[in-house]
């Protein structure tokens, strides 16, 4: 009888492994706005949900991830919420279903020789400004700033420099005068003596000063067709991610960093831990998207994106809290 029980148990293990659900998840970059995703990965939470995850990283920025999702070469994207609005203006249904970062997390940093003074917006003219990639939220940040201060976009040069150490190196080497980026790059700029932060939207006050409100950024999103056809898979991805958010609330920055895959950590670990601590305020506590906060990205996009400005955007179709609301209590404690 004992042998029979052991044999049956082994069969169950083999069967569950054989029937693990495959899901392809792509991430736009290893900036800290996306941190809850690799934390969930590092803690093995997707595997515990019975998922076999194939991960692809597009280090050049979220716009590449969005392209992959629309083209059907990935199932779920770790990208920025504002992409869902852009896609609706192009009559494509892309839906956010878990919020990772409730706030921008962006900073505008100046190199040692930068002449830009935020108190005098016109001093940004002639600057070479580094962003993660064209079409990214860092790109939107710059264009919205210029638009608000009535400065033509052709008065500056906007250059894609990626994120993390590569972005900081571009500023340090003088390839750019200003850098709009996320942590860990924001912390690296200060800790390495490369420059200083001139505009800081990592905290709520800074975001409201720049955007007029909180600016949700990193989310998990998928096409509506994939969500409709694979609700159980989406629920499992949601369960694991929400559990990671809850875990992060109750652990130190150093403990969070210990869960990460080595390739996610930029620069030296000590400075990276400081970057995680500096970014803690931006993370969602439970993955829920706030219907008021998502109006901020729409206002930003409408200010300079012609397609969004003329389109009738229905924000209710750009996100859903359905799956977050169904996360089992055991998965969020």
From TrEMBL:
Is this entry keyworded Signal? yes
| Entry similarity comment | Belongs to the bacterial solute-binding protein SsuA/TauA family.
Which UniProt key words apply to this protein?
Answer: Signal
- From which residue to which does the signal peptide run? 1-20
An annotated GO cellular component: periplasmic space
Keyword Signal set for record: yes
Name of this protein: Transporter substrate-binding domain-containing protein
Say which domain of life the source belongs to: Bacteria
GO biological process terms held by the UniProt record:
alkanesulfonate transmembrane transport
Q: What is the scientific name of the source organism?
A: Rhizobium vallis
Protein's cellular compartments = Periplasm
């Amino acid at each position: 009888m004992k042998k029979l029980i052991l044999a049956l148990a082994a069969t169950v293990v083999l069967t569950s492994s054989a029937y693990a659900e495959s899901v392809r998840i792509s991430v736009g970059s290893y900036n800290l706005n996306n941190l809850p995703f690799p934390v969930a990965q590092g803690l093995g939470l997707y595997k515990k949900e019975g998922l076999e995850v194939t991960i692809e990283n597009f280090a050049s920025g979220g716009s590449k991830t969005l392209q992959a999702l629309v083209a059907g070469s990935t199932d779920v994207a770790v990208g920025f919420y504002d992409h869902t609005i852009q896609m609706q203006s192009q009559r494509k249904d892309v839906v956010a279903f878990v919020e990772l970062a409730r706030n921008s997390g962006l900073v505008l940093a100046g190199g040692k020789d930068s002449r830009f003074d935020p108190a005098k917006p016109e001093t940004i003219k002639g600057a070479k400004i580094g962003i993660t990639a064209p079409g990214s939220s860092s790109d939107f940040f710059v264009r919205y700033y210029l638009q608000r201060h009535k400065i033509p976009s052709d008065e500056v040069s906007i250059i894609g420099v990626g994120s993390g150490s590569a972005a900081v190196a571009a500023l340090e080497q003088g390839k750019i005068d200003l850098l709009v980026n996320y942590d860990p790059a924001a912390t690296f700029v200060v800790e390495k003596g490369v420059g200083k932060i001139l505009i800081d939207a990592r905290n709520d006050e800074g975001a409201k000063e720049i955007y007029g409100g909180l600016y949700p950024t990193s989310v998990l999103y998928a096409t509506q067709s994939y969500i409709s056809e694979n609700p159980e898979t989406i629920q499992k991805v949601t369960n694991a991610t929400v559990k990671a958010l809850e875990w992060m609330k109750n652990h130190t920055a150093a403990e969070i960093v210990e869960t990460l895959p080595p390739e996610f950590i930029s620069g030296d670990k000590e400075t990276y831990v400081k970057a995680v601590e500096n970014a803690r305020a931006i993370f969602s506590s439970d993955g829920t998207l706030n219907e008021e906060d998502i109006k901020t990205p729409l206002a930003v996009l409408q200010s300079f994106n012609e397609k969004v400005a003329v389109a009738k955007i229905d924000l209710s179709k750009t996100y859903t809290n359905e799956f977050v609301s169904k996360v089992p209590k055991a998965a969020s404690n």
